[in-house]
Amino acid sequence: MSWLQGQFIDIIEWIDNTNDTIAYRFERHNNEIKQGAKLIVRPGQQAVFVNEGQVADEFTAGTYELFTRNLPILSTLKGWKYGFESPFKAEVYFFSTRIFTNLKWGTANPIAIRDAEFGPVRIRAFGTYGIRVVNPKKLLESAIGTDGLFQVNEIDDHLRNLIVPSVTSWIAGSGIALLDFAANYRAMGDRACEGIRTDLDSLGIEITQLTIENISLPPAVEEALDKRSSMGILGNMGQYTQYQTANAIENAAKRPGGGNSAMDMGMGLAMGQQMANAMQTPVTPAPPSPAQWYIARNGEKLGPFTLEQLQQQAISPQTQVWQNGMSGWQPASTVPSLQAILLTAPPPPPMPQGQWYIAQNGEKLGPFTPEQLQQQGISLQTQVWRNGMDDWQLAATVPELSELFADTPVPPPLASVAPEPQTQAEWYIFRSGDATGPFTLEQLREQGISPRTNLRREGETEWTRARDIQDSALQSLLASLS
């Protein structure tokens, strides 16, 4: 009896000495688990009991004594209606839930993308990723099966087959320029992670990170980029010729005894002469492009202009100007390079004289110069207007016309000035829910309007109290009625 009891398992545990084991089945040789056996699940592990192919109870990190109360699913599967039957048989799988890092991925073959600058280009990409088990039951059912030792290398091929298409698909559709790839490695990795999370979730695995370490180009493209960089550093074609000549001489010198020495000597002399000519003959620089100026006038941008053309535009010190390199529009007076133009700029042309209009008998007459206004025999009560005024005004209220009435007595206060009668019927009245009209100003007087009466003009849609309407003739009428 003691021999049989010794065969029963008292402690169930897994000490993992590897770095790549995902799942391990607790092995025993025809041994059974007895009631009260100790289950030890270490940090970073989970244990799963399996009964005849069916997943039963799961245990997280901790130490457990196995009884019916902590094996409810297994008890149901076994049909233990009246308590724990000891001993019993069950498979125990341990899962490592730590993060497996530094797993490699890469493109097996070059992938073709279309770059806006270089056209169709074939690239390769590689990097690392990390995973961890988040649902042991899903992983056991979908990937492990009856495997007693499940390691990373048994699933990494499948994971790479998910990662590579996700990365390449995002790169090809991102529109990121080839030369900007390095600055976007992190964003590319994050987007690729999002693309495969759903696929990995069905396996019970989570991808913790995906890093793109490098995206490599074909040797021919790399060589072209290197040459372009060299030309950019050297600055112009003359210096690039010197650079290429020096490289050719160096390569010829490295050939051990190959070729014709006389020919090499002649070639070397020719190259040397070419270098001398390139260094002695200065390259004529391209003429600088004239400064391109823009001006702002009446809300529009005009230009570009050279300095000579800018002078012809008769700009003033207040004119807003701009050219490439300036942070914003500035008055011309604040730009040092324009001071000479401002000093010689002609004065602005005088305002046109014929600019006044008068209202008589409901009609607009004009334009008139101030002298012509005087000939028209206007009075202090004549309604006048010119460009720049908000509305018609009495001539008595316009300072520019004061000289025309130098011999005229000072007019009475504005409130007592009788407005010119208007013969045009353009006013409507809103009273008691009805609109009536149209009326002239004289007819409004007869209607007995007050400052609170709602009025509107012909063509307007909104009603406004008479006292709030900006019309000098109407306000004069209201003042005479008060």
TrEMBL record:
Residues 24-233 form the SPFH domain. Residues 293-338, 356-401, 427-470 form the GYF domain. CDD domains: SPFH_like_u1. Transmembrane segments: none annotated. It comes from Lusitaniella coriacea LEGE 07157. Pfam families: Band_7_1 (PF13421), GYF_2 (PF14237). It comes from the Bacteria. This is SPFH domain-containing protein.
